Write the structure tokens for this entry.
Amino acid sequence: MNATTTAFAPGRVNLIGDHTDYTGGLACPMAVDLGTTTTLERGGDEVRIVSDQQPLQAVVPLDVADPMLVRPRWARYVAGVVSVVRPEAGGTGTMTSTVPVGAGMSSSAALELSVALALGFRGTPFELATACQRAEHAAVGVPCGLLDQLASACGRADHAMVVDFTTLGVEHVPLPPGCEVVVVHTGVARELAGSEYADRRADCERAAAEVGPLAGATRDDVERIEDERLRRRARHVVTENARVRAFATALRAGDLPSAGRLMGESHASLAADFEVTTGALDTLAARLAALPGVFGARMTGAGFGGCVVALGIPGAVTEGWRVRAVDGARVVS
Ligand code: GLA
């Protein structure tokens, strides 16, 4: 009889620190109790998965050459994992997921990590995350950073994590009592394969070519950048890194009003300087932030649609997904 493996990988919500990972900056995500479970009975020379979220199954040969050409589209992520992990045997099985697709809660990272583990990937959480980041690049060609995969791999129950993308250090910070994290969808799906993400990344690289790595740049360095657009992009990154530091300090002190205020400032910076919010995101973030008992709200993830994350006292937000911080991706059985 062939071995059967079941693996679970959580989605994530980023509390603060967006569009910082690919410049070696800081972010503060948490793995959430919405996730993807993949069960595979190993054997054969292809990976066949039926998903409860998709009408067509994924059928991926072990020697898949170009994941970006695979159909149906969702199977590209499976193919990306196969092309990176290159397992010795294939597998047949099922996938179930509670992570909403296109919401900015990293449904693709959850898929990748659960498939990699179900295919027998062995390595540290960091190795799992980097392998799955390569899988994402191979699947859709978007030059995403490591935030999503690392958050899914390194989550800890009841903790957020502060990730330094220069040192790749992860520090777990307990979520203070008396607060709740709620994620609310704008209703507009986000498609990361759009060119805007790569454009923003290219802007940051051009800014860094002028003033050095943005993770080490100061506000004065930023103001020296000649091009107005590049200056704003760099200003977002530099101020966002400072906000992540201050947010972590506020969480450790249980200072939820300060944490919430920083979330509002982050949203404003992503709107004005980084230009990745939409009217729907701005309206939703402002509406949630104004609710009694809400400390702050901001867009989360890449932007261009998707979700807003709010921090409030329990019950302050009565819509969306109330999420709890959970442990990272793992083999279940
Ligand atoms: C997406 C990417 C991440 C990160 C965020 C923005 O989720 O996959 O690597 O860049 O956008 O913070």
Summary: The longest strand covers residues 26-42. The chain has nine helices and twelve strands. Residues 14, 18-19, 21-22, 144-145, 147-148, 301-302 surround alpha-D-galactopyranose (CB under 6 Å).
